[in-house]
Predict the 3D structure of the following.
Amino acid sequence: MIKKTFHYFFLITLLFFCFTSVDAASPNPKKPVKPKNIIFLIGDGMGTAQIYAALTTRKDNLNIAKFRVVGFHKSYSANNYITDSAAGATAFSTGSKTNNGYLAMDTNRKILPTILELAEEKGLSTGLVTTCAITHATPAAFIAHESGRNKYDDIAKWFLKTDVDVFIGGGRKYFENREDKRNLSDSLRKNNYQVVYNQDELQAISNGKIAGLLYADHPPAMLAGRGRMLEKSSVKAISVLEKNKKGYFMMIESSQIDWVCHNNAEDTLISEMIDFDNVVGMVLEYAKKNGETLVVITGDHETGGYTLPGSDIKDGKLKGKFSTTNHTAVMIPVFAYGPGAEEFMGFMENTDIFFKFRKLLLGY
Ligand code: MG
Ligand code: ZN
């Protein structure tokens, strides 16, 4: 009897250790790994051909091509088969398809909370970095609620309503040279922001809230001498945001891929794409070391109806072609790396990206 009891005891103990060690070795598939931080990179106007053109000129060596989790999104807006950047970014920031021209509002002009505002509410840090005026449609859709994307003076006021920790781009005139004569930079300073006007001033800061208004309006194009503004600004923003133990949400936009495609300018397209890809490389290296950061890259829509009827990937020679000076409706690739990346596989709505972010980062 004693011997039998001992045998049972031994068996149960053995089973216990077997199951606990198996559990520790392989993560439970029902419990998805959650990221602490999300870095969301948007190439405005960037479709598959824009990426493939950059891959070609780089002779098959591109950071975006290192991503193993890839999906596609449908970019159409609530009122148009072809979205604009306001409705496109609103889909990502709020999970709602809206009318072209609307920022973080539904089609009835009801204000929708954005992923940035929701992250702030939960005590996470937040940031926006861009190569356009910070009041332009893509960054604006994460913080402003307007039915007119061109009301830049009104959009600037929203930066005082949400406690975004870091924002860096152009657009100083919409804060300081306004029709209502208010100086919003003074108001930002009262709210403990360090307002900086150039890259040197930005680099001198190591913590606290930052309003980086580096240009009066838009930063110049890469070919007009912007330099590594996006990369340097993004590195600085990450170093400040990562001090929050609760985590952060950050959006980095390469805005001018869209503009050069509107102009059907292939050489400037390549320079903007390579600049964006350098930022992608920096973020990917950071995420690999950090281990708790989800990186997602996509475009809001394609611009220019760009395609590659010729070219040579061995010698990097490009012969692309544009078919329109407007946006197009083609599906847009989504790339993901880090905890939760698998969620971004497959075919999705552009609005799904918001719900995946909210679930992974905020838990609902
Ligand atoms: Mg944009
Ligand atoms: Zn555009």
